[in-house]
Design brief:
By secondary structure, this protein is α/β, with parallel strands linked by helices. It is built from 13 helices and nine strands. The chain has a seven-stranded parallel sheet with strand order 3-2-1-4-5-6-8, sandwiched between helices. The longest helix is centred in the last third of the chain and has 15 residues. The termini are far apart.
């Protein structure tokens, strides 16, 4: 099997396609690819379901944005045919998020794509019985069916990203609490999404990184009590962790209105997976892709501290 770098080296078109550009993870990955435009890529294409601020920002930065939907599998195939490598970010935003989402993976084979990357979650195979997360398992199974038809194929599983704390910034600033539906003793190894995107980009461009399965995590395992303690240090205020019901987290995020209902449901189920210690793994894969230690939670929170402090008038 070739490396992804070999594919781009041999191509005149040098095109990378990222799906899920209307979601935070897809946006961060696409933005990282855009940094390499004109240097390593001639074309950075981004698929999205609904136009939002992420899509508009990517378009402004030079991405070719294309609306895609699982209901139109033929269009997905048509768009993929223009890409050397496709990075599939699971289409959680779509109305029909579910078993049909495998279309985004299967289309790569039909389109004759040379390189395929599927983004998933740590231990997705153990999430089959968790309603909203089950499609991840099905997409991984679809990946296994088509990967041998590619010149290069990688499955990239990620831990929960610490960036998700931004969604609770108002609660932290006003109530001095982190209220989530997670067992306070359950540990996982949170990563910064920016690190994950940089690692993925390095996997595509550096020939020393071979295609295969990568499990990306942060450098240390923590629980949310630990994170609250580190948040306290970052904002110079005592922040407590409080375990609440799943429904309370859902209603809080719904009221804030910053992400779609599907994304809220996905987030709540990922928090359940943390509680069940399904994503408790810590690996060195991200460090190897980055060539340096990934960003720690402490560093991330210190860097983002102003986001979690009360603003004037609040």
């Amino acid at each position: 099997m070739q490396t992804f770098a070999d594919i781009f080296e041999a191509s005149d078109y040098k095109s990378v396609m990222v799906t899920g550009g209307d979601m935070y993870s897809g946006y961060v990955i696409a933005r990282e690819m855009l940094k390499e435009k004109h240097k390593h890529f001639k074309h950075v294409c981004v698929g999205y379901y609904e136009e939002n601020r992420f899509v508009k920002l990517l378009k402004k930065d030079g991405a070719e944005v294309i609306q895609l939907c699982v209901d139109d599998a033929n269009k997905i195939v048509e768009v993929y045919r223009k890409a050397d490598v496709v990075i599939v970010v699971p289409p959680v935003n779509e109305r029909r998020w579910g078993a049909s989402s495998v279309a985004y993976v299967l289309a790569a084979k039909e389109a004759g794509v040379k390189g395929l990357v599927l983004c998933s979650k740590i231990n997705a195979k153990d999430m089959r019985d968790m309603d909203f997360l089950a499609p991840l398992c099905e997409m991984e199974e679809a990946f296994d069916r088509v990967k041998d038809s590619m010149d290069a194929a990688s499955l990239v599983r990620c831990s929960l990203h610490i960036d998700m704390m931004w969604l609770f910034r108002h609660q932290i600033a006003s109530e001095k609490k982190i209220c989530l539906s997670v067992d306070p003793h359950a540990k996982f190894a949170p990563m910064a999404m920016m690190d994950g995107a940089r690692g993925l980009c390095n996997m595509l461009l550096d020939p020393k990184h071979k295609p295969g399965t990568y499990e990306l995590t942060g450098p240390e395992k923590l629980n949310f009590k630990d994170i609250a303690h580190q948040m306290s240090s970052a904002v110079d205020k005592k922040i407590e962790y409080k375990q609440v019901k799943h429904e309370e987290v859902y209603e809080y995020l719904k009221k804030r209105g910053e992400i779609s209902k599907n994304e809220i449901e996905f987030m709540c189920h990922m928090l359940k997976a943390v509680s069940k210690e399904i994503i408790d793994k810590r690996t060195e894969d991200l460090k190897k892709l980055l060539g340096e230690e990934p960003m720690s939670v402490k560093h991330f929170l210190k860097k983002s501290a102003d986001e979690f402090k009360p603003k004037d008038g609040e």
